[in-house]
Write a structure and sequence with these properties.
By secondary structure, the protein is an alpha/beta fold. The chain is built from 4 helices and 7 strands. The structure holds FE2/S2 (inorganic) cluster. Residues 85-88, 90-95, 101, 103 line the site of FE2/S2 (inorganic) cluster.
Length: 121
């Protein structure tokens, strides 16, 4: 996925691309490990940095913890909560998290918006 975009980003002087896989194979020569293994390799200015997080929900609390170690403000940590959606139009309630309809109000939220929302991450 996004092979063209990755090649473009890798060629940009203002962009560093770090990739990892959970389990490598004989073809993979890059980093092996969960995404949080990349955080120590990244030096960021928290004033000019946003974290955009898309992936399995189990990953989010670990990513948020690493972002906070880098002093990212809660408003600059973006999380996609597309989980559990069915109708996508606010009718079935399947996506609801304590009164918040992810399909209507998200699916992308800042950490500031959901950190007090139980079961969100
Ligand atoms: S997915 Fe049905 S209400 Fe949100």
């Amino acid at each position: 996925m996004f092979i063209g975009e990755l090649e473009e980003w890798c060629g940009r002087p203002d962009c560093d691309v770090l990739e990892t896989v959970d389990r490598g194979d004989e073809c993979w020569t890059g980093n092996v490990g969960v995404v949080t293994t990349l955080f120590p390799k990244v030096d960021v200015d928290p004033k000019n940095t946003f974290a955009i997080t898309v992936g399995p929900p189990v990953m989010y609390k670990f990513v948020v913890a690493e972002c906070k170690k880098k002093d990212l403000p809660d408003e600059q940590i973006l999380l996609s909560l597309e989980r559990r959606m069915k109708c996508g139009v606010g009718k079935c309630g399947h996506c609801q998290i304590n009164g918040v309809y992810v399909c209507q109000e998200g699916p992308v939220f800042t950490y500031a918006q959901i950190k007090e929302l139980e079961e969100a991450i």
